[in-house]
């Protein structure tokens, strides 16, 4: 079984990816290889951050790895929160505060179009590959649902009439940005 290190501390992301991989790979977290420091995310794009995180692990630990970065991009907010999605309302990285800030900025705006984007950077034997998943949708006017994490309670994908937070993780993985990017990763790894 191929072993890959996932450059994240977010257990929700690890769970989502493991469900998609369906035990075809041994995924370990960065903590499991002794990487306890926070990996820098200083790039101005989601793509840049994903690559920066993967390169950080590969350069320091010499392991095959992948990293992902995701963001909510709201059309009427010029793509914000985007690369700053996790810390949009401040360094505390509060999902609730982030949602509240976006909803406040979107008050009285009719066009609620948005998208979720994920970029996965895979590094195997020093070679980097990038995979991108996007799901279009719109913002709800208030949070709905108790499943998921991040902005899931306020994002309604075009394929549904409800938020990501109202559907099962399996249903979300079938249409989500992360699911699309992970399926591209799996396609490469299993060819």
Write down the secondary-structure element order: EHEHEHEEEHH
Identify the strand order in the major beta sheet: 2-1-3-4-5-6
Runs in which pLDDT lies below 50 for 5 or more consecutive residues are none
What is CATH's topology name?
A: Maf protein
Biggest sheet descriptor: 6 strands, mixed
Give me the Rg, rounded: 16 Å
Helical proportion? 25-40%
The level-1 CATH class: Alpha Beta
Report the portion of residues in β strands.
25-35%
Distance between the termini: 15 Å
Mean pLDDT: 92
Give the number of DSSP strands.
Answer: 6
Q: Label the CATH architecture.
A: Alpha-Beta Complex
Morphology call: globular
Number of domains: 1
Q: Give the structural class.
A: alpha/beta
Number of helices: 5
Features:
single chain; 191 residues; Maf protein; 5 helices; 6 strands; 25% strand
Overview in brief:
This protein is α/β, with parallel strands linked by helices and 191 residues long. It is built from 5 helices and 6 strands.
Draw up the topology in text.
Elements: E1 2-6, H1 11-21, E2 25-29, H2 46-61, E3 65-74, H3 95-105, E4 113-124, E5 127-139, E6 155-157, H4 169-175, H5 177-189
Parallel strand pairs: 1-2, 1-3
Antiparallel strand pairs: 3-4, 4-5, 5-6
Helix pairs in contact: 1-5, 4-5
Structure description:
A hairpin with a 2-residue loop joins strand 4 (113-124) and strand 5 (127-139). The relative contact order is 0.16. The protein has a six-stranded mixed beta sheet with strand order 2-1-3-4-5-6. It is 30% helix and 25% strand. It has five helices and six strands. It is globular, with a radius of gyration of 16 Å. It has helices at residues 11-21, 46-61, 95-105, 169-175, 177-189; strands at 2-6, 25-29, 65-74, 113-124, 127-139, 155-157. It has one domain (2-189): Alpha-Beta Complex (Maf protein). It is α/β, with parallel strands linked by helices and 191 residues long. The mean pLDDT is 92.
């Amino acid at each position: 079984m191929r072993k890959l290190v996932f450059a994240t501390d977010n257990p929700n992301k690890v769970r989502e990816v493991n469900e998609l991989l369906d035990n075809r790979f041994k995924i370990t977290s960065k903590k499991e290889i002794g990487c306890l420091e926070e990996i820098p995310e200083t790039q101005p794009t989601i793509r840049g951050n994903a690559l920066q995180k993967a390169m950080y692990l590969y350069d320091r630990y010499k392991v095959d790895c992948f990293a992902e970065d995701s963001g909510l991009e709201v059309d009427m907010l010029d793509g914000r929160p985007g690369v700053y999605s996790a810390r949009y309302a401040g360094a505390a990285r509060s999902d609730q505060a982030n949602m509240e800030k976006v909803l406040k900025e979107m008050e009285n705006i009719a066009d609620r179009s948005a998208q979720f984007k994920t970029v996965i950077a895979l590094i195997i034997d020093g070679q980097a590959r990038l995979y991108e998943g996007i799901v279009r949708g719109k913002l709800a006017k208030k949070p709905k649902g108790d499943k998921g994490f991040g902005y899931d309670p306020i994002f309604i994908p075009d394929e549904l009439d409800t938020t990501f937070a109202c559907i099962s993780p399996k249903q979300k993985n079938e249409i989500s940005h992360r699911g699309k990017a992970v399926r591209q990763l799996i396609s490469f790894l299993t060819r």
